[in-house]
Amino acid sequence: MIRVWTVEHYGPVAKPERSDAEYNSHNDAISSLEWRPDHPDVLASCSNSKNDTNIRFHDARTNKQTAAVQLGNEKNLVLSWSLDGLSVVITCSNDEVVFVDTRKMRRSRQWGLSGHTKLSEVRWGPTQNLLTMALDDGTVRIAPLAKLDSPIWRLNSHASHTTCLAYSRDYKYLASGGSDALVSLWHMEEMTCLRTYSRPDQSVRTLSFSHNNNWLAYCSEDGYGTIDIVSTLTGDVASTLNLKSYCETVAWCPSAPVLAFAGDKLTHIRAMTGHLVRVSCIGRHDRDVTASMETEKGTVLHHDEMTVTPFGSCLKV
């Protein structure tokens, strides 16, 4: 289920309260959702179940599903919008990526990775004509859409599996997390690794840049819900949030210093900034959920029951 809330300024909203809209379009576990980058009311979502292989689109203005595109029989893991909002790329469990044309609402292309290398995640960027891929050999490959088999950059980012990716808002920086418990920060204009962060004890699960690109938040699979916030300018650890519970995903508000995070025991949604924030939440029967937070200027993505907190309340500098 997808739930959408509109949270007023400084207004606490608990998850059990009535939401502004609910979408029951998926019939199984939901793995990913993302707001369209050039349209604040359009939401795309997918399931990681073979029982539900549709990519579904919703319009927050009408609170209805507007389209559904049937893919193959594989699980859909992660989706990512193109920069112009006219296409969506989906990472599938069989190491293939599928492209959906959102104007015609149909599958436009399918591409499979050759060899024994496995795909973890695919993100559109750093430009409209490039795709970024995280692979289990520790590399990050950036290839033109016309020649995905011929990457123009191959970044040796990790000693083992590259697990997740995140671009800064202006696509100046790329962060990658790996199963080697490292986070690598890359400068995309110079294609150089600026620094690495090694505080996680286990594989890095999720990454997110702040709205001004000055801060990077990440969380590892250590089971303790520890979130580190580091400076992209100096590399210093600015703050550590100890949640004492499992953390699935972190995400920054795209227009304010607000950090959203989610985990097993985070049961409230709180908006404590002077910005109007729309919150979406996806649930399934066994309590795993996915959520997305949106303001007038863009969106962020995160999972499970959600808490939104102002960065100033946790920053220690």
Automatic annotation (TrEMBL):
Keyword Nucleotide-binding in record: no
GO cellular component terms given for this protein: THO complex part of transcription export complex
Domain of life of the native organism: Eukaryota
GO biological process assignments: mRNA export from nucleus
Anaphase-promoting complex subunit 4-like WD40 domain location: 123-198
WD repeat segments: 155-196
SMART domains: WD40 (SM00320)
UniProt key word Transmembrane: no
SUPFAM superfamilies registered for this protein in UniProt: WD40 repeat-like
Pfam families: ANAPC4_WD40
Listed InterPro entries: Apc4-like_WD40_dom (IPR024977), Tex1/THOC3 (IPR040132), WD40/YVTN_repeat-like_dom_sf (IPR015943), WD40_repeat_dom_sf (IPR036322), WD40_rpt (IPR001680)
Keywords, comma-separated and alphabetical: Repeat, WD repeat
Stated family: Belongs to the THOC3 family.
Protein name as it appears in the record: Anaphase-promoting complex subunit 4-like WD40 domain-containing protein
